[in-house]
Amino acid sequence: MQPLSYDRRGRGKVIVFLHGFCEAKEYWDDSIKVMSEHFTCISLDLPGFGSSAAIGIVSMETLAESVFYQLNSMEIDEFILVGHSLGGYVALALAEKHPKNIIGLVMCNSTAFADSDEKKLQRDKTIKFLDDNGLEEFVRPFVPPMFFPKNRKSCSKAIEEIIDMGLRADVNAVKATISAMKKRPSRISVIQNAKFPVLYIVGKDDGSIKMDDSILQCHQAAVSFVLFLDECDHQSIHEKFDIVIETILGFCKKIKAEPLNLI
Question: Residue 72 belongs to a domain with what CATH number?
Answer without folding.
Answer: 3.40.50.1820
